Amino acid sequence: xxxxxxxxxxxxxxxxxxxxxxxxxxxxxxxxxxxxxxxxxxxxxxxxxxxxxxxxxxxxxxxxxxxxxxxxxxxxxxxxxxxxxxxxxxxxxxxxxxxxxxxxxxxxxxxxxxxxxxxxxxxxxxxxxxxxxxxxxxxxxxxxxxxxxxxxxxxxxxxxxxxxxxxxxxxxxxxxxxxxxxxxxxxxxxxxxxxxxxxxxxxxxxxxxxxxxxxxxxxxxxxxxxxxxxxxxxxxxxxxxxxxxxxxxxxxxxxxxxxxxxxxxxxxxxxxxxxxxxxxxxxxxxxxxxxxxxxxxxxxxxxxxxxxxxxxxxxxxxxxxxxxxxxxxxxxxxxxxxxxxxxxxxxxxxxxxxxxxxxxxxxxxxxxxxxxxxxxxxxxxxxxxxxxxxxxxxxxxxxxxxxxxxxxxxxxxxxxxxxxxxxxxxxxxxxxxxxxxxxxxxxxxxxxxxxxxxxxxxxxxxxxxxxxxxxxxxxxxxxxxxxxxxxxxxxxxxxxxxxxxxxxxxxxxxxxxxxxxxxxxxxxxxxxxxxxxxxxxxxxxxxxxxxxxxxxxxxxxxxxxxxxxxxxxxxxxxxxxxxxxxxxxxxxxxxxxxxxxxxxxxxxxxxxxxxxxxxxxxxxxxxxxxxxxxxxxxxxxxxxxxxxxxxxxxxx
Length: 652
Fold this sequence. Notes:
The chain is mostly helical.
């Protein structure tokens, strides 16, 4: 072999098997695997370049010096010069090729470094997003727990209110029973009074017969006649008082029916509160389902974390692959190109993983937005429950005040019952006294009859005795008249007392009725029934069927309200926004007097906003309607024939 011929195989083999220059780098440090692999590749390229430079010096300068010595010794030939030029050109070409490879590797290194930095940045962003989502999830869990505690507290207070309402109903039943017993006692006393009056009349008739038989007591008979007239007037007044008491009894029966209807209304309100409680239970179930979905999303995030850990293990395995590729580069220079391809494939996989992570980030952002929307919904629901809780608390205080007033009224009724019982006992004692006096008068009457017979037999010889007897009878009659007058005054005082008690009971009944109406109106103002919409203190309902004006109004009345009365422009705007397409009956008509429009509550229509050119009374249009949303004049009023069937709007 010619000494000038280039034989770089052993040198390349030696350079590519220098394992100590490559394997001493620690490739397994966390989070810097790709950067260190790139650095190792750069060092390897630098070592290769240094080897090529050394090879160039070894094969260019040393042979050149040796050939120069030999030429000086033996003389150069033309063939040696050609061989030298060929070696120089081959080394130059190889050097250029190696420089080109080095520049390509440097560019690949920079690209891989840039890609790695972007991936690290994206990974940090994803980790920060994950932490933010975890924090938001914990906050949402805390909010859900707070809402559950508030819901439990509301249920407890609702049960307490239900217990108080039951106690009020029981007290109301007891008061009603006591009131009925008092009415029965009053009826019994009235019957006794009537019987006593009849017996008194019988006694008077017997006493009058006695006076008719006794001609000598004509003057006394006249005075008794006057007394009879006075008693007759008293009897007439008692009859009038009896009629008045009968009227009062009828009024009290009517009031009892009103109280029963109020009780039914309270029962209906209780049913409505029960439905509200059911809706709260449904809300609780919805919150529970939201909590379950949050748990599922937590599991999904845990799965994402596991996926990221798997991807991290994949990156570590890629790092091991890079290390193996580096070992193959040490064994063979030609495997460097394959390593570049593998790095390119790894880069593509990292780009795909980046896209996957970006997709996961987008999904996590969407889930975060969903969490935020759910949190806002839960927050709004919590605020609504808080408002409902405040209204229920106010209702509880109102019911407590009503309960206290009912307790006071119960005590007053107990006092009135005690007074009436004492008066009844007093009346019975007086009745017994009057009965005893009647028996005494009957005995006196019998005695007078016997004395009359004796005086008729012994009239001539016992005139003085008869005169004394007449004086005694006169005194006795005067004493009896005074006693009867005292009894009459006592009965009149008792009647006045009963009248005052009746007036006080009527006043208390009116106050109780007023408090019940206020409480009912407040309960109605707290919450609207299902399907009704609230505006101000009123509730509105839009029908789903079509009927005539009168039939629609009857349906509203059956539901406890009437056709809607528009008292303001704001209310008309609200009703206009409430309806859909079509024409809807409202509580307005001029059927009583043509051209004079009146609301169903009896007030005139003064502030209504009519459609242009309306009302025109075309074909006897006597009922009012509001136009739906498909009209250009939506929300304005129009007159229509009352027999047309269309939807209607109720108001409570």
